[in-house]
Structure formats: structure tokens, C-alpha cells
Specification:
Strand content: 35-45%
Structural class: alpha+beta
Radius of gyration: 21 Å
Largest sheet: 6 strands, mixed
Number of helices: 6
């Protein structure tokens, strides 16, 4: 029991410190946890009392220069990347990392030079960057040249800003989409292996489409006759399960101000109020980075109708190089049900060490 409590304490302290490690700043960040009608203030220095030098809007995508710890908080210096204008009142400055969702996939400059290089992921100060790729006669990518490059030599950019070769800056990069498609195909082949599994294939494609801004893709995967059951708990079947109709999912972008009660946090027992849009946004993880998939035996408590066939899968994203990887992981549980010879998503929850 003492060891379990110690691990819980460590995990909770890590969560309180925020998702960004100041020693290894991400290349990009998205503004989160800001109301739709609110703005994020950008400060001259990493201090909430410092002079405001600009603002940014919810969901804005920015570059990250560096991060640093100030007492118990982490602050990051952010900048606007080329062509991505979310706010006219934007200047480089500092924001509290609690309002940032880190990301390390996108176009980058290497030592300030652009050549449509595309970063895949970063770990412990090193980033895997696609510097070249091989195409077949149909134009499909069939192989990548991936180089490990120090994070400190990279700067996140857009497909416009990463195009520049010395003084030539006409046009924009297009390779990113093809690279992502290639990686997703390879990951699907790897996870599906030699045994065809239509249900798992549907789960993986659904996982790849989870994004509150891509509601049409999500809707096409949902059961046409049943609601989607979601919960912030680690199992279904509790009184805090929430049921969402087709209309709820379709309109979650319009209803971002409508915060729902999801229950209480573990440990402190604080109320959890969040919109469906915000909850869905927290589910997003790159398909290409899935570590493993497990078939569930008990469906995490989901109650499938006796007349139906249901299957459950848990997808894992594990930080394999972390010294505490036993709790430095994220899981996504997806329950699917067969209807008219097709599989549809009926249950969804985040799995993790703690909240």
C-alpha cells in the first residue's frame, strides 16, 4: 500500500507541474482551457503581473521558443508561425504552460534554414526529422530518411515558413500530409498484423479521426441507433457516465460554452466541469505513436446488450524512455458494437495513471 501511495503522489505531483517539461520544450503548442469568448494574455516576462504584449485565442497554434520553471509554474515563450494568424494583437512573449497543449509534429527550420523538413516527434532533447523521402511512380511515399536532430537547433514553422531556401521563399510545403499518410498506413499494417480484424481496423481509423474540429469524420464512425457513452472515470457503469446523441456530437463545436459535470477528480475530489468539445480535444493522440493495443475481456464495465456483439480495445501511448514509464503513459478505451455487419463506436474513455 505504501508503494502505491508513493507512486500516486509522484504522478499527482507530475500532473500538477503541467504537461510541458521546461528542459525539453515542445516545437509547437495549442491554446487550451480558455473559454470560447475569452483570450489568453501574452506577457513581456514569465510573470502574470508582467506587461501584456499581446493576446491569443482558443485553439490557436503557435511556435514555442523555450520554456522555464518559475516557482511551481512552467512558462513558455511563444511566437506566431508564418501565415497562421489567429489574433491581430499578437507579439512574441510568455504564457503559462497550463494553457498550452504541447505538440512536436510539424514543419521545422534547421539552424534557421528551411527545406520543408518535417519533425515527427521529440524525446529528451532530440527530434526525429524527415529530411528526405522516396516516392514511387504514382507519387506515393514508400520510404523516409529520418535524422535525429537536437531540439535546440530547430524552430517550428508552418508549411509556408518552412519553404524558404536561402532567399527563395515562393510557394509552400506539401510533403507533411503525405508523410503523415505514409506513417499511418505503416502503423495500421503493424498493429493489424497478419490477422484481419475489422473491428480493430474501425477502432484505429476512428482514433485517427478524433478531433473536435472534424465532427463529420467522428459522426461516420458512431452507432446509428445508440448514443455514445463517455466518462472521465477509468471504467464504465458509474453514475457519472454521460450519454451523447448524434446531435450532441454534431453540435459540440457550437456548444463549447456548455460545460458538463463529469464527476470528481481522484484524490482531491474536485468537481470536473468541461464541455464535450474540451473532453474530445483531450483524447487526441497521434495514431503513428501508438505503442500497443490490447483486446479487453470485460469491456471496462461497459454493458453490452445480450442480443448484440461488442468488442473493446485499449490503445496505449507509453513513454518508453521514461524512468517511470509504469505510470508515464496514456490509454484510450474504445468499445464497438456490430450493427448490420458493420462495427460502430458506442463507448469511449481516457485511461491513465491518475487525473
Amino acid at each position: 500500500m505504501g508503494k502505491i501511495l508513493l507512486l500516486l503522489l509522484i504522478a499527482t505531483l507530475q500532473n500538477n507541474a503541467g504537461p510541458i517539461d521546461p528542459n525539453y520544450p515542445p516545437l509547437f503548442a495549442k491554446v487550451i482551457d480558455i473559454a470560447e469568448d475569452d483570450i489568453l494574455n501574452i506577457r513581456e516576462r514569465p510573470d502574470h503581473k508582467s506587461k501584456k504584449v499581446g493576446t491569443q485565442v482558443p485553439d490557436a497554434w503557435m511556435g514555442v521558443e523555450r520554456c522555464k520553471r518559475i516557482k511551481t509554474s512552467v512558462w513558455c515563450k511563444v511566437y506566431q508561425i508564418a501565415q497562421n494568424v489567429y489574433s491581430e494583437d499578437f507579439n512574441p512573449g510568455w504564457v503559462n504552460a497550463r494553457y498550452l497543449k504541447p505538440e512536436n509534429s510539424g514543419y521545422v527550420l534547421i539552424d534557421g534554414k528551411g527545406n520543408c523538413n518535417y519533425a515527427l516527434r521529440c524525446k529528451a532533447g532530440l527530434c526525429e526529422v524527415v529530411t528526405e523521402y522516396v516516392q514511387n511512380e504514382n507519387g506515393d511515399i514508400i520510404d523516409l530518411n529520418i535524422t535525429s536532430i537536437k531540439r535546440e537547433t530547430l524552430k517550428g514553422e508552418s508549411n509556408f515558413g518552412a519553404m524558404c531556401r536561402e532567399e527563395e521563399c515562393d510557394g509552400y510545403c506539401t510533403s507533411g500530409n503525405y508523410i503523415e499518410d505514409y506513417l499511418q498506413r505503416k502503423k495500421l499494417e503493424q498493429l493489424l498484423g497478419q490477422t484481419p480484424d475489422e473491428a480493430l481496423e474501425h477502432v484505429l481509423k476512428f482514433t485517427n479521426s478524433i478531433n473536435p474540429m472534424w465532427t463529420e469524420k467522428i459522426l461516420s464512425s458512431l452507432h446509428p441507433k445508440k448514443p455514445l457513452i463517455m466518462t472521465k472515470n477509468l471504467r464504465f457503469g458509474g453514475k457519472e457516465d454521460l450519454s451523447f446523441s448524434y446531435s450532441d456530437i454534431k453540435n459540440m463545436g457550437k456548444n463549447r460554452k456548455q460545460k458538463l459535470f463529469w464527476g470528481h477528480t481522484y484524490g482531491k475530489g474536485d468537481d470536473v466541469w468541461m464541455s464535450l468539445y474540451a473532453y474530445t480535444d483531450r483524447l487526441i493522440r497521434p495514431l503513428k505513436d501508438i505503442t500497443k493495443v490490447e483486446i479487453l475481456k470485460d469491456l471496462k464495465g461497459y454493458q453490452c446488450s445480450p442480443t448484440s456483439e461488442c468488442r473493446g480495445y485499449e490503445l496505449y501511448w507509453i513513454d518508453e524512455i521514461s524512468p517511470t514509464k509504469e505510470y508515464d503513459w496514456y490509454g484510450l478505451v474504445v468499445i464497438v458494437e456490430r450493427y448490420k455487419d458493420k462495427w460502430y463506436v458506442v463507448g469511449l474513455l481516457r485511461d491513465r495513471w491518475t487525473i
